[in-house]
Amino acid sequence: MFLELSKEEDPLNGNQTGIIFNIQRYSIHDGPGIRSTVFLKGCPLKCKWCSNPESINPYPEIFLRVERCNQCEKCLEVCTPQAITFIENSIRINRDKCDLCMKCENICSFGVINHIGYKITVNDVVTEVMRDELFYNNSGGGVTISGGEPLYQIGFTLNLLKEFKKRSLHTTIDTTGYAKWEEIDKIFDYVDLILFDIKHLNQEIHQKGTGVKNDLILNNLVKILEKGLRIWIRVPVIPGFNDSSHYMNELGEFLSGKPIEKVSLLQYHEWGKHKYKYLDRIYPLSDTSFIEDEQLHKFKNIIESHGLEVTIDY
Asked: Of 137 and 11, which is predicted with more confidence?
């Protein structure tokens, strides 16, 4: 199923092959019913709270679990580009030198080195997802294309959606909305539900938290709503970023009266924090506190007061 790894190949050519990092079966929080969620690599946003940092870069990468290493140095012997070193009895990888040949992964008996992300064909994704067709049919579920940002690999995403609709499967796309409208508009004939993220309404605050401005995102949201597409709004509730009653009231006013099926408040968590260490990155919100359930329900009530249906974490 997996094709040869490469850093250099541009996934944006995205026709019959793409770069994904997971297909999660029996997913129940990414749309209605029981679903399979296909996670694509590549995202133009750099959200400080991202729980899937391995999804940001559009090429395969290495997870390095240093704590598992017994310093046998077999990986050092097979590393042709000499990207592996041992400093103070601890393995290190120069990611700029690494060519992803993965000889080190194959020779390591302790699971220290693993590749994250692989090239795969549309047909192989469809074959894997359709294994659970019975569950989808019985639960009103289907497939969700997520990421990263699935619109980053627009050609691949479009071809996936087309193939799933040929099989009469319910399709959902989970998107930041950060893409050119002419790209987004290509997919609508093949999408039954859109999960659309709103991080913040204020452009300056949005840019500080995600690395990009929000004007393109909000303009795309308006156009999607004008088309009458089925849409759920997702709001990650992040301490120090958007966790205030004032902001939640502002958000409720902004969404009020719009044809939105529901708003989902997603509670901040640190489930992906360990992944930053495996990627040799620093977790940006290391000193962040958590939001109490009571506060989250308060935010839910505020948005509901604007005539919107609100759920927490789904």
From this structure: 137
Q: Is 80 exposed, middle or buried (0-12, 13-18, 19+ CB in 10 A)?
A: exposed
Q: What is the distance between the alpha carbons of residues 175 and 229, in angstroms, rounded to a whole number?
A: 14
User: CB neighbours (10 Å) of residue 145?
Assistant: 29
Location of structure tokens 């902001």: 247
Nearby residues of 278 by Cβ (< 8 Å), 6 or more positions away:
63, 64, 65
Give per-residue pLDDT as tens, 60-69. 999 999 999 9
The per-residue DSSP string of 51-120 comes to: S-GGGTSSS-EEEE-GGG-----HHHHH-TT--EEEETTEEEE-TTT-----HHHHH-SS--EEEE-EEE
Residue 174 in contact with residue 147, Cβ under 8 Å? yes
Domains of the chain: 27-42+123-312 (3.20.20.70), 61-116 (3.30.70.20)
Which pairs with CB-CB distance under 8 Å and at least 24 residues apart come from 42-45? 42/11, 42/147, 42/148, 42/149, 42/152, 42/153, 43/147, 43/148, 43/149, 43/152, 43/176, 44/149, 44/152, 44/176, 44/178, 44/179, 44/212, 45/149, 45/176, 45/178, 45/210, 45/211, 45/212
- Closest C-alpha among 144, 237, 154 to residue 194: 144
Global pTM exceeds 0.85: yes
pLDDT tens profile 219-251: 999 999 999 999 999 999 999 999 999 999 999
Cα–Cα dist 191/199, whole Å: 22
* CA separation for the pair 305, 167 (Å, rounded): 40
Walk across the sheet containing 193-197 and list its strands. 118-121, 17-27, 35-40, 142-146, 170-175, 193-197, 231-237, 262-267, 310-312
